[in-house]
Amino acid sequence: MQLGQFHVPSTHTAAASQVAAKKRTTDIKRTVADLGAVAYNQGVLPDELAQLISLITARSHLDQASLNSIIRNLYPVGSVSEDIVLRIIGALGLGELKPSLVLQSALLQWLILVYHVLDPQAQAVLSRAYSVLFNLLDVSAIRPQLFHILAIVTRRRHVQHYRIQALLNLTRQHANDRHLVGLLRVYRNYYPEIIVAGPGKGSTFKLPDPEWKARLAEIQRAHRELEQSSSDAGPRDGFKTIHQHLAGNKAAKGLCIPGVQTSHAHETSITLEEVDSAESLAANMERIEMPDHLVAVLVDPLLQKLMMVRPDKDWHRAWAWMDMQISEILNGDAEEDALVNCLQVMGEYAQATKLTRFLAALESSMDGSTEAQCDLLHLYTALIHQWGILLLLSTDSDSDADSDSIPPHTSASLNTLLQHANKLGLTLLQTAPTEATLLSLLSLYDRVVAIYTHSSLLRALQITVPPTLLIYTVQFSTSLATVSRLCALLTAYKQACAESMANATRKLGPAYDKKQVSTFNGFLMDICNCLWRGKAFTKTDTTSRGCLVPDAVVAVLTGYVASLTESGASSEMTLAGLFSMSYSPVLSLQALDYVRMREEQEDLDVELRARHAGPVTQRSLAQLARKGGLELSWHEYRLGVLRYLEAREMKGVPELMYSTMKNLVEAKSKA
């Protein structure tokens, strides 16, 4: 019998399950019996296991006895994936679309039996689903199995006071439930001062079916031996070349990747094919001759290790193959599944070596068009969004302090990706300086700051702020929607920076970059100087940078604005005030609309003798009041514009002002 040539008849069973008993042309009991026999003798492959779990958890025409028989014979030949665990958890509880409680109990018992062969991600799923499982304890039919699973996965972070109280409440109703007492004893190991003694004579949890587990061990051992004998790749510890790697890598097989072969060795050198252990690799490191085709590094673990510790000048040969492969895919000259296979091989290589060269290779393969750059930006945005989801799933939802489960390379990986995204963003600002581009860039950093705003993640990450040129370019956008989004983004960054600095002070997180904090404070001060204080481009404040506009440019612009005043423009118009609320191209209309609204409200009670012509200044408001117009102080006017923007769902600017200007803290609380 060869690996991959056997399978349980899961497809036939699944098809029969969709046909009503009276309409079937086959004997379903015989089909289920055959399935059970094959599964008991040979085990169930991963794809078949997923299909059978789906069959059990979905509505079908199979009787309960048949479904129970299938569960009893689900002997996985390898590790059980997180998808299987998620599907079982999703099938628990009460509801018309849920399996019967008897089947739910059997599925939970199966999880207990296979817990030791769950892959790490699957075990993590059970840990993250702790709250879901705990809340199902009200369902008495599956309570014993739930107690057992909870006892297995319980860690200190899961033991919360409200859960202890809930279990103690259950003991008043079910004092003799040994499963309940068993879970309480697990809890008592963490908090003996709270749970002094467990009631009753509960015993420790025992394996439901030792014989079943023994049979599972036999099947998995036989499968491992079969897998090893069916491949001549040798030890899979990464210290021997895989001569026939294409036979076990379907993706590589479709891409025609050559194997490791060295034809130009000499007497004093050693070929990679002769290395068969870590000791052999270390002893002959400098004598090893590089193989003919370095592209084999994509699939050969030994060559990967060699090229990581001994970088070679011919690295470009491997990347040249990737460039050629991607070019063929883009030109339509490759096979239909070439793209998927290529990405799979690259992904496996990147995962194995932790290198970041693929970002550069991907960028170099683009044609340089604006469309390609935008597509790449969207890819980075989606990738960061996906990383954020995975990071949140890796932490316990019950605890904000659980950052141990975050991989140690997370911060460096995120920052590396952001460096590429930052360069791409600055390039797009030159090649396609449109509002659509600006909004796409803001979407990218929205995904980044969404990661930083979670306390559990922030304790393991260093904050990287957006590029200075990007911030100032977006700041002077002519779109209020764009400016509002920028201000909202900076507000979120400000909160994250404050928490990061506090964590660093309390030794609860990594040290923060003082240079980046100074740069970020410069963003805030420059924007406030423009919008609120009427001091655009000033550099007199400690942190202000004058929006990085050179002094010579400021001098020329100041002279130009002065010439406009001499030509009849308002004498109050200055360069420093041209970007304030009253004069700003994006806020002046809303500012004047606010004054118009106040005038109309005031006119209902007292007839106004004068109306403001705009733009509004502190001096013009005083003159307006003396002429019988609206009486409105300068501070009340600016605060009113902020509230006017908030009421119209343009909250970015108000949020930034409230969080940055100290004199607005009290005003915000009264809003």
Automatic annotation (TrEMBL):
Localization of this protein: Chromosome, Centromere; Nucleus
GO biological process: CENP-A containing chromatin assembly; mitotic sister chromatid segregation
A Gene Ontology term for the protein's cellular component: nucleus
Keyword Nucleus: yes
Annotated Pfam families: CENP-I (PF07778)
Chief localisation class: nucleus
InterPro entries reported in the protein's UniProt record: CENP-I
Keywords linked to the UniProt accession: Centromere, Chromosome, Nucleus
Family under the similarity heading: Belongs to the CENP-I/CTF3 family.
Name listed for the protein in its UniProt record: Mis6-domain-containing protein
Species per Swiss-Prot/TrEMBL record: Coniella lustricola
